[in-house]
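#lab-general

N.A. 3:47 PM
ok so I finally got the sequence cleaned up, no stray characters, all 286 residues accounted for. can someone with queue access submit it? mine expired

B.Y. 3:52 PM
send it over

N.A. 3:53 PM
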Amino acid sequence: MPTTAYELTQPIKRSSCVVFASPHSGRHYSQAFLSKSVLDKRQIRSSEDAFVDVLFAAAPRFGAPLLAANYPRAYVDLNRSIDELDPALIAGVKKMSNNPRISSGLGVIPRVVSNGRSIYRGTLSRFEADQRLADIWEPYHSCLQAQLLESQSLFGTSILLDCHSMPHEAISSVSHAAAGCPDVVLGDRYGAAAEPEIVARVEAAFRNAGLVVARNAPFAGAFIAQHYGRPSRGQHVVQIEIDRSLYMNEKTVEPNGNFDELKALITQVIADVTTMGRDGVLLAAE
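B.Y. 4:20 PM
back already:
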């Protein structure tokens, strides 16, 4: 493999129960992958949560690890179950009933990028699919689980902030005139993935940074929130979706003039939320 599945940046001292992860910001597009695609590199990056790992790069300075994928979502989607294989793309796979993600081409190895544009000219072999999962999906999730277990061992609880970005058009069409268009959408699977107090604490941090926050609509959390969110066991997940238009040109997939300003605000949020778990205190005062 030309690069590892992920980058894990550890703090000098682990002082927070919070773990930051960015599963969709990977941008290593190998020539072998691109040669199989009907899309050019800019088009194929349309489903990438570009630069999210850079926005949250300050996490280790505040005592929390940052786990970031190296390979792109279009190659392996780390926010899907390992068994969400698409029979329309991968040879020899049996159809899974009633899975809208697979039906729409967004399985663990996606068939399409944004706006339903096909990635490949033809199909993939089951061997190639299994190899991608063994090289990318399994190492990433093994590392993620290890980080959550370490937080629980040190602090008695773990809070995963699963960091993503969303196309502006995905929220502009569902925003309410009175509330306006949210800058950030927090997903906790309607309370199933994290205790309400923790979600409120994260929401307050973003609001204190001057950002407009909504919950669960249109993104309530996918596989990672569902799989790792176990509040009864002291393991919590809050999915974070940031409007891409705040910090990047979505057509060219390049940072815009607001990038540094938003990164500073996100660093403020990181400083705030990482007080959870510090010195044995789970929730800081409002």
